[in-house]
Amino acid sequence: MIFDWLAERRRRNILNDPFSAEWEAYLHKNMGHYDYLDTTEQKQLRDLTQVFIAEKDWEGCGGLELTDEIKVTIAAQACLLILGLDHILYKNVMTVLVYPSTVVPVYPAGYGDQHGIIQDEHCVPILGQAAMGGPIILVWDAVRRGGIHPEDGHNVVYHEFAHKLDMLDGEINGTPPLETRDQYKQWNEVCTREYKDLRRRAAAGKRTFLDQYGGKDVGEFFAVATEFFFDQPVRMEAEHNDLYEVLKGFYKQDPATRMRRQRK
């Protein structure tokens, strides 16, 4: 309880400093979804962004100069996911490492399994990565491209931070912490069906709505589905309504309605 009180006091102090006009300009410039939000949601997102930037450790890697634009763009996209949640601001994310472009990451000392060994699958070129107990790794050119072009349905920040939400219960199983037994039941039924259908269609060489990378495993399915839920919500709602509804129930957001409202 004392810790919670101290954390809230620290966050109130952080928010005593105004969110600058320059920072908000970065949101309009680099985050297409920001303009879909109403004024109350925008204020909430700015507050979360400001606290996230202050509380996390940031490091520019591979010669990248870490600017306010980079921090604001990443933080705001990450915080969009938790806009409707009773969150703890990604307590399982301590460090954000940002590279300029596609990279084979170099990990900090102490990262790896209990023996300090880094597995082979973590030593390949990436656009982003989120590992249990590890930092978030992101590539700036992919972050910016995904934020500016939500119509593509690919957003590395949404993807990697969805993994961190999945990991909150200590497992990478494609199911973030839910509130009720019925919610878990519906999630399992819908996501299992959609996951199997994605794999089946991909194996048959058929076109799919979700990126076929989501068929790799259930963890990747949730992360990919999150990208499309926020970036192509109107189409998801129309073509994969059950999936849209379970994601809407978890995130407590309705991006399809937001997008239709913005287009009027």
Automatic annotation (TrEMBL):
Transmembrane segments: none
InterPro entries: MetalloPept_cat_dom_sf, MtfA_fam, MtfA_N
UniProt-recorded Gene Ontology molecular function terms: aminopeptidase activity; metallopeptidase activity
Lineage: superkingdom: Bacteria
CDD domains to which the protein is assigned, alphabetical: Peptidase_M90_mtfA
Gene Ontology CC terms, in alphabetical order: cytosol
Cited PANTHER family: MTFA PEPTIDASE (PTHR30164), PROTEIN MTFA (PTHR30164:SF2)
The protein's name in its UniProt record: Protein MtfA
Organism: Poriferisphaera corsica
Lineage, top ranks: Bacteria, Pseudomonadati, Planctomycetota, Phycisphaerae, Phycisphaerales
